[in-house]
Amino acid sequence: MDMQGSRTLAVTQQQAWDALNNPGVLKRCIPGCDKFEASGDNRYTVGVAIKIGPVSAKFSGSVQLNDIVPPHSYALQFDAQGGVAGFGKGDCKVELKPLDAGCELHYTVHSRIGGKLAQMGQRLIDGAAKSLIEDFFSRFEQVLKDDAASADAQGNASDDASAVAAQAASAPTTSVPVWVWVAGALLLAAAVYVLR
């Protein structure tokens, strides 16, 4: 099976590259993934549970990154075994191109399947693969948005707390204890974080 496509992402090329090379982010984005761990240089062990038509299976396998050109592109090879459900093998090429606002991700996938999965019919397999890819990108875009919002909120809360602390330091000496100013700064930072 061969698939290719592209997505426009609302993050910089470097942010997308960092996310695509973060096992924690990938584990959150791959549908059914319960394991995505480094197992060597540019090598990962993966565990995924999927259901395609009447076949449900837990696949375990590995992903190897090759031809790495940060933050532009890499190739990966994958190999997964699902017992009697079958196997999946293939390779993928991922490229990131900067845009004025964000970046564009291009991918090309070549894969082979065997076992019960291969007996299900090409149209069902293609539909399931497209659905899984769409689900991955929806999750990936949401994780990028959530992480950016969280970073902004933490940065703004930290800036607000610093500003309050600076004002407190430059204020004339009063009978209000320092711990009250610090508590107030922390409360303000927490309020700004919650409101964003």
Q: Specify the structural class.
A: alpha+beta
Q: Indicate the low-confidence ranges by residue numbers.
A: 161-196
Distance between the termini: 44 Å
* Number of distinct beta strands: 7
Strand order of the largest sheet: 1-7-6-5-4-3-2
Total count of helical runs of at least 4 residues: 4
Q: State Rg.
A: 23 Å
Order of helices and strands: EHHEEEEEEHH
User: What does the main sheet amount to?
Assistant: 7 strands, antiparallel
Mean model confidence by pLDDT: 79
Give the percentage of residues in beta strands: 35-45%
Estimate the helix proportion, in percent: 40-55%
Principal-axis shape equals globular
How is this structure best described in words?
With 196 residues, this protein is α+β, with helices and mostly antiparallel strands. Helix content is 42%, strand content 39%. It contains 4 helices and 7 strands; from the N terminus they run E-H-H-E-E-E-E-E-E-H-H. It has helices at residues 13-20, 23-29, 122-170, 178-195, and strands at residues 2-9, 33-40, 43-52, 55-69, 73-81, 87-99, 102-114. A hairpin with a 2-residue loop joins strand 6 and strand 7 (102-114). The longest helix is centred in the C-terminal third of the chain and has 49 residues, at 122-170. The chain is globular, with a radius of gyration of 23 Å. The model is unreliable at 161-196 (pLDDT under 50).
